[in-house]
Amino acid sequence: MTRSPALRDHIAAGILSSAAAVLGERGEAASMADIAEAAGVSRATLYRYFPNRDALLDALTDAAFTDLSEKIADAKLDTVPVEEAIARLTRAMIAATSKYRALGLLEKSPEQHAQAKSRLVDPFYALFQRGINDGTLRTDLPAHTLIAAYQGLFQGAASQVNQGRLGVEEASAAITTIFLDGALGRQKHR
């Protein structure tokens, strides 16, 4: 039986969604059998789509980068004020992080790090640099320092989401307000 490309894509997406959930709950202890069961497919079907665990993890990483890249593009960060852009970026990132939390537990290849830089880090840096240049963000600190501070807040809040202590919206609001209260340019403080 030959499946249409749309059906194959739908089945693969379902498997990846289930894999993200199972790996997020069980980490490296999750087996391919666990993933197949959660996806509602046989192990043979799982292996037809993803011949081994590495292929599944690579596809899951690609899906996560694509999902987050699309969320960032949809947020149209360059069309809104910096403060709103940071709030939009935070919501997109915390939602993707909660969905693909297992990827934070797994090793990433140098190729995956390069992909992350071009698809995620560069737009991030551009936003923060724009905020510095227009005076919305502090001008006494370079973009990489502000990004590092933001990432620290983000990682702390993301761990709270992963532990079920904060919801996605609650974490997004906390990160955004705490960061912006400390990162606003002098003329923006009340």
UniProtKB/TrEMBL annotation:
The keyword Transcription regulation appears for this protein: yes
Residue ranges of the annotated DNA-binding region, renumbered to this chain: 31-50
Keyword Transcription regulation applies: yes
UniProt keyword terms in alphabetical order: DNA-binding, Transcription, Transcription regulation
InterPro entries documented for this protein: Homeodomain-like_sf, HTH-type_TetR-like_transc_reg, HTH_TetR, Tet_transcr_reg_TetR-rel_C_sf
HTH tetR-type domain span: 9-68
Protein name as it appears in the record: TetR family transcriptional regulator
Species: Plantactinospora endophytica
